[in-house]
Design goal:
Number of helices of chain A: 9
CATH architecture of chain C: Orthogonal Bundle
Number of domains of chain C: 1
Radius of gyration of chain C: 20 Å
Number of strands of chain C: 0
Helix content of chain A: 55-70%
Oligomer: heterotrimer
Number of strands of chain A: 2
Low-confidence stretches of chain C: none
Order of helices and strands of chain C: HHH
Largest sheet of chain A: 2 strands, antiparallel
Strand content of chain A: under 5%
Helix content of chain C: 55-70%
Distance between the termini of chain C: 46 Å
Shape of chain A: globular
Chains: A mainly alpha (about 230), B mainly alpha (about 90), C mainly alpha (about 110)
Radius of gyration of chain A: 23 Å
Order of helices and strands of chain A: HHHHEHHHHHE
């Protein structure tokens, strides 16, 4: 009975939504005014061939700064909620075959993450995706080699330093924009002959690097603070 | 709308049903990972490669690890009655 | 047709959040609602062009709308940190109440 009433209610809500959102039908090719500007002018003004990253890190860089702040707040909330005298859960990991094969495979994973970060303005990818790949490497370390492997080699303080340095790199790019162009987070790209090269002048390259380092370290901190377990009576 | 899109949409709905209404926690987490993978393929069909990369790395890699480590930490009532539990 | 499908997926996630009593399933319902909204958003702004990456040797190409893709990328990464925070709260709650079920957590009722 309750489920029947819920279904009636939801079919009503669905009918209202699909009736009000009918103007969103995709008939014909049309772009909005802001999008028309981004598509036609974006690559010449920012020096980034990937228009998504030119929007994320140049036109709407304040959004990315706010997003980094949200992730920083989430990391600090999780660490402060789960902070007590903890020790890592001891496990010995998987068998020797998996350990050796993953040892061969790790540099390739690392190179793919770094490639996605550095080529964020030329090809699909960017700071977010590459950073998540770098964070996933330390998660797979925990699964394959046991949970004390990563914890004893790289202390949580070094990950905190990495995260803070990524955020500071982002802010430094914004402040350099003040001195060169006159406003915060301005892009100082001014040489169209280097369009499409890897090392372009401008802030998109540095912001990609900072966001990648920050996201990778932050997700690794989140995972390792969830997985720790309290050892009572010691 | 091609044929493969309909095919993927039906599988997406099935994965969502299995993730929401299965009995075991682990089954629903694996179904959520399948849901994320199918939606990443859909993003690729809709010509959004950046979003597809983010969705497949976060949805299939990070969510599975975080959810499984969380359900191994959650203590329920059944754990309290276990005789070999050293905490009691 | 496409939009109707994603709308029903959104409502399925909502029904799952209302009917389930397990907190883990509630978080999964939230994730399904978020993913269906983003899929809807991307699918109706796909206008049959190329991916929004400019190629230097083909200057006159028709490109898709890059703005909703940037917004969806931001939303996905924020949802990941949201879900990690949710799971942390569930772990803390189960440490005091010894349950992850809404009906068994006594402090929420009286």
């Amino acid at each position: 009975m309750k489920i029947f009433l819920l279904l009636v209610l939801f079919s009503g809500i669905g009918f209202l939504l699909i009736d009000n959102l009918r103007f969103l039908s995709n008939s014909g090719f049309s772009l909005g005014a802001a999008t028309h500007y981004y598509v036609t002018q974006g690559f010449e003004q920012t020096g980034a061939l990937n228009l998504v990253s030119s929007i994320l890190y140049d036109f709407r860089a304040f959004d990315s700064l706010g997003e980094s702040t949200v992730i920083f707040a989430a990391v600090s909330g999780i660490v402060s909620l789960l902070s007590r005298k903890t020790l890592p859960v001891s496990s010995h990991g998987l068998s020797i075959i998996v350990k050796r094969i993953f040892g061969i495979l790790t540099p390739f994973l690392f190179v793919s993450g770094i490639y996605l970060i550095l080529h964020g303005h030329l090809s699909p990818g960017g700071g977010f995706q590459g950073g998540v790949i770098l964070g996933t490497i330390s998660i797979v370390f925990c699964i394959v080699y046991g949970s004390s492997f990563d914890y004893t080699r790289y202390s949580p303080q070094s990950k905190t330093i990495l995260e803070v340095s990524g955020a500071l790199l982002f802010l430094a790019m914004g402040i350099i924009g003040i001195f060169l162009e006159g406003f915060f987070l301005a892009n100082w790209f001014s040489s169209p002959e280097r369009l499409g090269k890897l090392l372009t002048p401008g802030s998109i390259f540095g912001i990609n690097l900072g966001v990648g380092i920050k996201i990778g370290a932050g997700l690794s901190i989140i995972f390792y603070s969830i997985i720790q377990k309290r050892i009572e009576g010691k | 709308m091609t044929l493969i899109e309909y095919f993927l949409l039906v599988f997406l709905f099935g994965a969502a049903l299995s993730a929401l209404f299965s009995r075991e926690n682990l089954t629903s987490i694996i179904s959520l990972s399948i849901f994320s993978t199918i939606s990443a393929v859909l993003y690729l069909l809709y010509r959004a490669p950046d979003v597809a990369l983010a969705q497949i790395v976060i949805g299939a890699g990070l969510y599975t690890a975080i959810f499984i480590s969380a359900i191994s930490q959650i203590r329920t009532d059944r754990q309290k009655n276990r005789p070999e539990d050293p905490l009691q | 047709m496409n939009q109707l499908f994603f709308l029903s997926l959104f409502l399925l996630g909502f029904i799952g959040m209302l009917l389930n009593r397990n907190l883990i399933k509630l978080i999964i319902g939230f994730e399904i609602m978020e993913a269906s909204v983003l899929l809807w958003f991307i699918s109706f702004t796909n206008q049959g062009g190329n991916p929004p990456i400019y190629l230097l040797d083909k200057p006159g190409m028709v490109l898709n709308d890059p703005l909703p893709q940037a917004l969806a990328l931001t939303a996905i990464v924020i949802a990941a940190s949201n879900i990690a925070l949710f799971l942390t709260l569930v772990i803390e709650l189960s440490r005091y109440h010894k349950a992850s079920d809404v009906d068994k957590i006594k402090g929420l009722r009286d």
